[in-house]
Amino acid sequence: MLKKKEKQPSFTLVRKRVPYLFILPWIIGFLVFTLGPLGSSLIMSLFDWPITGEAKFIGLNNFTKMFTADPQFYDSLVITFKFAAIFVPLNLISALVLALLITQPVKGVKIFRTIFYLPAVVSGVAVSIIWGWIFNSEFGVLNYLLSLIGIEGPSWLIDPKWAIVTIVIASAWGVGTMMLIFYTDIKGIPPELYEAASIDGAGPLRQFFNITIPTITPTILFNVITSVIAALQQLTLVLLLTGGGPLKSTYFYGLFVYNNAFKHHQLGYASANAWFMFIIILILTMLIFKSSSTWVFYEAEMKKGGKK
Amino acid sequence: MRITKSHKIIVYSILVILSLYFLFPFAWALITALKTEGEAFSFPPTFLPDVPQFGNFIEAWKSQPFGTYFMNSVIVTVMTTIGQIISCSLVAYGFARYDFKYKNILFILLLSTMMIPWDVTMIPLYMEFNLFGWINTLKPLIVPAFFGSAYNIFLLRQFLMNIPKDLESAARIDGANEFQIFYKIFLPIMKGPLTLIAVLNILLVWNDYLGPLIYLNDQSKYTMALGLASFKGVHELQIIPIMAMTLVMIIPPVIVFAFAQKYIVEGVSGSIK
């Protein structure tokens, strides 16, 4: 009824509303599935919130408990950062090496591109089953192969010292996605750059450090950020390959939060845990971005610099 | 670049050695799935089975409601793919082809949602879906896909930004309305990036374990990923049927990848430019 007052809406008015209609699905989804839950979990983190029974406001007590009264919080945090510290550089370097290999101008290299990428399309469930069987300490083929070259393999999944290594190896199997990102980027470097460098007498190693690396720094930045975030949130493999054990040696932070929520039913506490990791990720991302101005070169900037 | 013969040999040997790491686990899974129990549980391991036990696959398939799991996975994968294609193309079009108030703020908001760790929203989302009565149904896995996903929208928007503005001006003069322009002109142009989104979504959803783990309780609702994981959890020692079903689960994504490799290779880096 109210609409009638407007009479015929003018053409431009309709046009003005149209874009919002197009993005409406996302706006609704953002409110209902992202912003709403995000705000709720922040509020919940201030409550003692059992799964049944009354929720009780306790201020910052969840956070105090986390920092002062829960040794598992620190243990999980340390293990997760240890994992990230091994996984991120390893993944980046192997992705880069693989990408360089599959950009070599030799025949049949596309077959290897497919082979290296293949594990990246496989579910974490399948990855954990396949690698769990390879690492099996009784019948595992890995220790048999190692014994052939005279190495006595550890009891991978039941030795607290080695369990985290199995998770690194199994996650590194999916390096293909990052490899592809590097690959397309390296492929896009104009060959003239290399030709010119060759004429100037630069060897392959110098070409790599003076041309390839500087050109792909934005991609390196992107990959560093995404893999840090992924490493800090690793959960599927931990749940399925080690279950957090042995002796909680792989009780990653993601599992800590998950169990606090769905096993111990401390919804408020788990929300506080999750928010803490969110803030850590925000700070880390910001730090990486800030540092990037010293080591990331954008093409547009280089061109501007050239004109001066 | 000129390539010497020794260079070639070195490159090939490294490529072959590395391939072992990426391929051997698949081969070993297949070999294990075809063994008899005596062969699988022997140390040192036997390599090839004496007689490949193809029946293992049928037995494993029948031992649990894997048919149901498989169908549930298909339903969720197909529905979410449809949802993503519809919602992301609309939203990306809105962001790429119009100027409107708060556009930049909204777009930055969209991008920043990609940084939110999933466990921050996990608990309230569970409670919300519980409120809707959706727990133990496939709805929590399907419905959000109809409201877009930041990464896909971003990917499509980047593509749409590169198309000249004259396209819709001409159509407007011809009297087409805004939705017709989107539907008749832009949707067909987006075929390539939409295929990429479909493929990425199929891989993501088919392989997802945590979503089904949280929202589904009843075996009849399980997806392949959850069904296989719970089968493994209960029958830890039945490695042969477990491996057989693992391979069955891997086949659809591998087929999709085989057909869509071109789109993945081209698309995967387009996102960060």
Automatic annotation (TrEMBL), chain A:
The ABC transmembrane type-1 domain covers 77-288
Q: Which residues cross the membrane?
A: 21-47, 83-103, 115-135, 162-183, 274-298
Against PROSITE patterns, the record matches this protein to: ABC_TM1 (PS50928)
Stated membrane topology is: Multi-pass membrane protein
Q: Which UniProt keywords apply?
A: Cell membrane, Membrane, Sugar transport, Transmembrane, Transmembrane helix, Transport
Write out the annotated subcellular location. Answer: Cell membrane
Family membership noted in the UniProt record:
Belongs to the binding-protein-dependent transport system permease family.
Q: What is the name listed in the Swiss-Prot or TrEMBL entry for this protein? A: Multiple sugar transport system permease protein
Q: What is the lineage of its organism?
A: Bacteria, Bacillati, Bacillota, Bacilli, Bacillales
TrEMBL record, chain B:
TM regions (residue ranges): 9-31, 69-93, 105-126, 141-160, 181-206, 239-260
Name the coiled-coil region(s): none
Q: What subcellular compartments does it reside in?
A: Cell membrane
Where in this chain does the record put each ABC transmembrane type-1 domain? 70-260
Keyword field: Cell membrane, Membrane, Sugar transport, Transmembrane, Transmembrane helix, Transport
| Segment forming the signal sequence | none
Q: What is its main location?
A: membrane
Which top-level group of life is the source organism from?
A: Bacteria
Q: Which Gene3D superfamilies match?
A: MetI-like
Protein's membrane topology: Multi-pass membrane protein
- What protein family does this chain belong to? Belongs to the binding-protein-dependent transport system permease family.
Q: What is this protein called?
A: Multiple sugar transport system permease protein
